[in-house]
Amino acid sequence: MKRYLFFRLLELIPIFFLISLIIFVILNAMPGDPLLTSRLENPRALVRDPAKIAELRKYYHLDDPLIVRYGFWLTSFLKGDLGFSSMYKQPVLGIIVKRLPNTLTLTITAWVIGLIVAFPIGIYSAVKKYSFFDYFFTILAFVGISLPTFWFALMAIIVFSVVLGWFPISGVQTYGITGSWNIFVDKLRHLTLPALVLGLVQVAYWVRYIRTSLLEVLDQDYIRTAYSKGAKEKRVILKHALRNAMIPIITIIALDIPYFFGGALIVETVFSWPGMGRLMYEAILASDYNLAVNCLMFIAVITLLSNLLADILYAVVDPRIRLGEKAV
């Protein structure tokens, strides 16, 4: 298992450098100048002395070739020095650390909601294929796949916040509330609607994958043999069929973790949720390149870790993967 994980980690290193280069090049191709943007926002931010401006440009390596600037940025990134934000006038690392818990709370909650809803529906649709239940959720899944996330979020706000008044419209907490229990309940009410929107959108995809993967296994000879020996349906489904169907399911579920962080950009913007998604959106609009590139790098790292998680789960579910690696 250690050898298997070592080689998987080794494979991620060149991918990380390639992704970081692509992100840096794309963001630096955007029009505008960081120093000019900072000066337009605050005329007193820079002196008008050309020598001082040239000194700042030299300090930030703005006149160096792109590959040299990438080298300086990557070295600082690996050291944990993410630089300063021209929009917030604060260190980028401090801003990300402040926003990250809100995004993790939202995405983890949405991911769990998606799993809790998708697995029972997908399994039951496969077991009762071509039933009314199967057709109903198949149609519902296709409708869910077709719905834009921002439209779904806006409709949820109109129905559940504006019309019914069940949940707050935006934010993460209501100001002025005191008491630990009251604060917890208030945060939970703010979290529920954006987490449901983010999670339920993904349920539509997962239900189709779970159903399809399980149907392929249910048609195998060993499943029919298990039934012929008198094994109970629940045992056959959960112990034999589902475990063997888990590898393609794990691939989708683990690799969709970055989707939640990418989808959080839309959901957090619509719900004014102060997380990483909204932070990246604001940074791009304000041409805050340093903040934007580090936010994108965060999502890239999450994507790589999701791939590693999928590989680990493969080995846990199917020991043949570990044995095959040892044989190599």
UniProtKB/TrEMBL annotation:
PANTHER family membership: INNER MEMBRANE ABC TRANSPORTER, OLIGOPEPTIDE TRANSPORT SYSTEM PERMEASE PROTEIN APPB
Keyword Transmembrane: yes
An annotated GO BP: transmembrane transport
GO CC, alphabetical: plasma membrane
Protein name: Binding-protein-dependent transport systems inner membrane component
Keywords linked to the UniProt accession: Cell membrane, Membrane, Transmembrane, Transmembrane helix, Transport
Similarity comment text for this entry: Belongs to the binding-protein-dependent transport system permease family.
Compartments in which it is found: Cell membrane
Membrane topology label: Multi-pass membrane protein
Organism: Pseudothermotoga lettingae (strain ATCC BAA-301 / DSM 14385 / NBRC 107922 / TMO)
Record domain ABC transmembrane type-1: where: 100-310
Pfam families reported for this sequence: BPD_transp_1, BPD_transp_1_N
The keyword Transmembrane is assigned to this record: yes
TM region positions: 12-30, 108-127, 139-168, 188-207, 245-271, 291-317
Main subcellular location: membrane
